[in-house]
Amino acid sequence: MKKNALVLGLGLSLSFFIACNKKEAPGTDTQLKTPVTSPSVTDYFPLAAGDYWVYKQSFYDTNGNSIPQTWKNDSVVIKNDTVINSKNYRIVADYNYLGRTTPVINYYRDSSDCIVGDNGNIIFSTNASGAIYKYILSSDTIAYVNYTYNEAPTNVTVPLGTYSCVDFKGDVYRKADNYSKAYLVHKYYCKNIGPVKKTELFVNSLYRLNFELLSYHVQ
After folding, report:
1. Maximum CA pair distance of the chain?
2. Residues 6 or more apart from 142 whose CB is under 8 A from it?
3. Helix, coil or strand: residue 68
């Protein structure tokens, strides 16, 4: 089966984002106000060198039936810094993603309330103001994903336990459906732990992948 049709496949997508403009409320009140700040993205997605997460990979058909695979566990490891276009990024290595024999390498950095990839895509954001981050797959837009941040706590159960998580939720729209129907995907993050559970989607078959936390180490 081809593995290049994933909407959220690491390192496979051309992407950009639309950020929400932040505007001050109108008025002439000059009294001192307590600023409202978003939680740090690195509280939910730590980027210290040596941090890692290990996930169980599960594969499902459109009816939710499990499809047995020989893939071993997926491991995401934060490596050292590198410089791209005069900006510092962390090297993020994903080992055994969908059974790949070579690691998938990504480059992430902390940019205000977002974790940003080297091509400008938003990996995760704690902007709760209703911002939509559009993530496009391929130059002919075979599909795109609108991501939004949901800070309402959600209990997520994985093999390691149950965690209270925020959700970087994605609505996937396919060219095959004339972009008229949304398919949900999720990235669940727990504070001081990181990504706890992720769901991904094959665009053509609509088969799904789950990545569920087995173990982790953060500094």
Report:
1. 64
2. 174, 175, 203
3. coil
Core vs surface per residue 141-152: b (16+ CB within 10 A) or e: eebbbebbbeee
CATH number, position 125: 2.40.360
Task: Tell me, yes or no, whether 130 lies in a domain.
Answer: yes
* 8 A C-beta contact, residue 6 and residue 203: yes
Whether 11 maps to a domain, the answer reads no
The total domain count for the chain is: 1
Its sign, for the CA torsion 161, 163, 167, 168, is: negative
Q: Which residues contact 159 (CB under 8 A, 6 or more apart)?
A: 56, 212, 213, 214
User: Is position 15 within any domain?
Assistant: no
| Residue 26, in any domain of the structure | no
Residue 139 structural domain: 41-217
> Are residues 179 and 173 in contact, defined by beta-carbon separation less than 8 angstroms?
yes
- For residue 162, list its beta bridge partners: 157
pLDDT in tens, the chain (219 residues): 444 444 444 333 333 333 333 333 334 343 444 445 557 899 999 999 999 999 999 999 999 999 999 999 999 999 999 999 999 999 999 999 999 999 999 999 999 889 999 988 899 999 988 899 998 887 778 999 999 999 999 999 999 999 999 999 999 999 999 999 999 999 999 999 999 999 999 999 999 999 999 999 999
Backbone angles phi, psi at 99, to 5 degrees: 75, 15
